[in-house]
Amino acid sequence: MREDPHDPLAAFLAGLGLVDHHVHGALRRQVPRERFESMLTEAPSGPSVGTVFDSQVGFAIRTWCAPLLDLPRHATADVYWARRCELGEDEVNQRLLRATGTAVYLLETGYLGDAVLDPPAHAAAAAARVREVVRLEAVAEALLAESGSADRFASEYPARLAERAAGAVGTKTILAYRHGFDLAPERPGTDAVTRAAGTELARAGGGTPRITDPTLLSYLRWCGVDLGLPLQVHCGYGDPDLSLHRANPLLLTDWLRLVEPTGVPVMLLHNYPFHREAGYLAQVFDNVYFDVGLGVNYAGAASRSIIAESLELGPFHKQVFSSDAWGPAELHLLGSLLWRRGVASVIGAWVDADEWSLADAQRVLRLIASENAERVYRLS
Ligand SMILES: [Zn+2]
């Protein structure tokens, strides 16, 4: 890492403010250690063998977060955990969030909202601005539960979405979790949507539906396009609700062909291990953008190669910074810190070899750190 304060690229990166274009709230309150460890992976619970601290993300926490909690680098997991409990969640959140150098968080609020800070509370803890991103499926499920009507769903959903997204800067779909990208790319007809809504309501048996019907999911993503706000699409790595091979963004190709003429930005999230595929899609489709959040946090000291691969085909105007942190503020901190270290190492080597000028490096870093997101989400 270029930590020499006289190194112009290191000094530039240290002062570079971020827009985290896809992220969730920090933990609202302290949780038991086992629950905390399970939040550091995409596994649904902690491992039966060993500890999550024995992984790249665990080592990265002990290296980079420990000093922010007044501990030496590489403090043991037990020492780290004890200090974390002693300080309490509010103090840990403030210290770690404020060390990220993030000016604006685009917070997606659709996942286990009770466990994490809501937008105003996250903004206060981080001393940063927060804008909201609305999850298409959550709005649809609330509407179906409230109305109980399949007949009115197709006509009521666009208005409900517009109302719910009135102050938001984007929408998000979790189609990858609920079905996968292998579904018909065309917009479904109203009759088919009504039938699908009826099926979901019947399956829910009076409770809140969990939409998995491909016709209905397809309708939601088209309503997201119609709304016109940037549409975030979870791609790649995630918890075992999804089948990874069906979350490859290349499976979106036919749908992207149909969406491209609308000009609505499609933001491919995370993508790991398909970040090279995402870079390709961002090159060939004018409205496609991508990030490598999530994978970077979890890969810790090995995240440099993910960042290097993201800078292969992906045009520099089509990449956006994200941490995709949810819960422990360690993940918010690592998303920022590991990205800064990764680009310093990868781009710094190109500057040293005079393959890139320093001025070009700084310009591209500003684009990815904040300017692309500010432009696409119209933040200013
Ligand atoms: Zn996310």
Summarize the helices and strands and which ones pair or pack.
Blueprint: H1 8-14, E1 18-23, H2 33-38, H3 56-65, H4 77-87, H5 89-98, E2 102-108, H6 119-126, E3 129-135, H7 136-147, H8 153-164, E4 170-173, H9 175-178, H10 190-204, H11 214-227, E5 231-235, H12 253-259, E6 266-270, H13 275-284, E7 288-290, H14 295-299, H15 303-310, H16 329-352, H17 358-376
Parallel strand pairs: 1-2, 2-3, 3-4, 4-5, 5-6, 6-7
Helix pairs in contact: 1-17, 3-16, 5-16, 7-8, 8-11, 10-11, 15-16
This protein binds zinc ion.
The site of zinc ion has 4 residues, from loops.
Series of H and E elements: HEHHHHEHEHHEHHHEHEHEHHHH
Computed CA radius of gyration, to the nearest angstrom: 21 Å
**Number of individual domains:** 2
Low-pLDDT runs of 5+ residues are none
Q: Helix coverage percent of residues?
A: 40-55%
Give the CATH H-level superfamily of the largest domain.
Metal-dependent hydrolases
The outline comes out as: globular
Question: How does this structure look, described?
Answer:
The protein is α/β, with parallel strands linked by helices. It has 2 domains: 8-30 and 100-376, TIM Barrel (Alpha-Beta Barrel); 32-87, no CATH class. The chain has 17 helices and 7 strands. It has helices at 8-14, 33-38, 56-65, 77-87, 89-98, 119-126, 136-147, 153-164, 175-178, 190-204, 214-227, 253-259, 275-284, 295-299, 303-310, 329-352, 358-376, and strands at 18-23, 102-108, 129-135, 170-173, 231-235, 266-270, 288-290. Helix 5 (89-98) runs parallel beside helix 16 and helix 10 packs across helix 11. The model has no long low-confidence stretch (mean pLDDT 95). Bound molecules: zinc ion. Zinc ion binds at residues 22, 24, 108, 324.
